[in-house]
Design goal:
Layout (H helix, E strand, L loop, with lengths): L12 H12 L15 E10 L2 E10 L5 E10 L9 H15 L6 E4 L12 H6 L6 E5 L17 E6 L2 E7 L8 E7 L3 H10 L8 H14 L10
């Protein structure tokens, strides 16, 4: 997969925050994604241990959600741990894994936030600017904003509002379990992002993109082949 236009990561935290503000203005919300034309969807996740990051990208067929390709990459976490700047730590391993992907992916779902970030640039938006396919953030916990409680059934959702703007949607992916936080990464609208995440969910809370990438990243961290024990 092509990843282009990346900036230097050799930045101080203050410089990184300023860069986030500049890059956030380049994020494109839309157009809608025609799910009927989606053939392959990827999921990206990172597992960390000490000062190392272990990233994996898993490609699934769509709508069947069978595993097509798994790639892993490990790299040092050179940037310090600073809340709101975690993308700068995780970009090197994630980019390494993305660049190994050979499949023609139609969208990427990151285990991260997109616009639902203090400066509007979570990892899904940060890297989404460097991809030529739509990027979506699907996080397990809230970083910013307020929201009502979504209904109890799968597909129920509530807007996530930050500074009087809808920056994401709180989505119930399984009946009566905790929701996930979906936001635009880049080049997709929020409704399409939510629809794709829901279509990637089976009997688990997390979409299969995230679940499979998370399991693979843990295998990579343990020194195992991230592509083994699939399913």
């Amino acid at each position: 997969m092509k990843v282009s236009g990346l900036h230097s990561l050799d930045l101080l935290p203050g410089e990184a925050r300023r860069l986030q503000g500049e890059l956030a203005s380049r994020v494109v919300e839309g157009p809608p994604l025609d799910l009927a034309r989606v053939r392959y969807v990827a999921g990206a996740d990172v597992s960390t241990q000490g000062d190392m990051g272990y990233a994996t990208v898993v490609v699934l067929s769509f709508p069947g959600l069978s595993i097509v390709e798994v790639r892993g990459y490990e790299a040092p976490l050179a940037f310090p741990y600073v809340p709101g700047l975690l993308a700068f730590r995780e970009i090197p391993p994630v980019v390494g894994a993305l660049r190994e992907i050979q499949s023609e992916v139609d969208a990427v779902i990151f285990d991260a936030h997109g616009l639902a970030h203090p400066r509007g640039l979570g990892l899904a938006s940060h890297l989404g600017l460097s991809l030529d396919v739509p990027a979506i953030g699907c996080a397990k916990s809230r970083l910013v904003g307020e929201h009502g409680e979504p209904g109890p059934e799968k597909g129920d959702a509530a807007d996530l509002v930050y500074r009087e703007k809808v920056v994401g949607r709180v989505v119930r992916t399984r009946a009566r379990v905790s929701p996930v936080y979906v936001s635009v990464g880049n080049r997709i609208d929020l409704t399409s992002a939510v629809d794709l995440v829901l279509r990637c969910c089976t009997r688990y809370r997390l979409p299969e993109t995230t679940r499979q990438a998370h399991n693979a990243a843990n295998r990579l961290r343990r020194g195992e082949d991230p592509g083994t024990l699939l399913g």
